[in-house]
Amino acid sequence: MSMFVGEALSGSGNEIAHIDLLIGSKDGPVGNAFANALARQSEGHTNLLAVLTPNLAVKPSTVMITKVTIEGMKQAVQMFGPAQAAVAKAVADAVADGVIPKGQCEDLVIVCGVFIHPQAEDNQKIYQFNYDATKQAIINAMACKPTVDEMLAGKDKADHPFKGF
Prior knowledge:
The protein is an alpha+beta fold. It is built from four helices and seven strands; from the N terminus they run ββαββββαβαα. The chain has helices at residues 29-39, 73-96, 123-142, 148-154; strands at 3-10, 17-25, 48-49, 51-53, 56-57, 61-66, 108-114. The chain has a five-stranded mixed β-sheet with strand order 1-2-7-6-3, sandwiched between helices. The mean pLDDT is 95.
């Protein structure tokens, strides 16, 4: 398969984390999205590579894209700090756990959409919730979850937490 899609939500309050991600081959559509995310930056949407620490990027190479416009240094630091650390650690742990096969790490890339609420305050929660959501989104993507049958079985019982009514 050239593209795996994953999604997960973790946490609560303004620090809630919602991750949408794509995992795929460097020479496929995810590779194109990866390159475009780095090459086509725009104000308020500064995309960045996930690194465990400077000069130690994760494999598969992972670009983080903002799902909300970053307004000010506080949000930027949250994205470049606890959120980046969380996404990078989740990717590294997914490889260590065998969720992403080690032998495919140089062939795959990840495009990871990250949400940071403008009123988020607690960096520890931002880290933990983004770690949990990223790790679960990777697991979901690599296992092709939910299956069509799981989606159909749950569609009438689903209660979206942000539907507004």
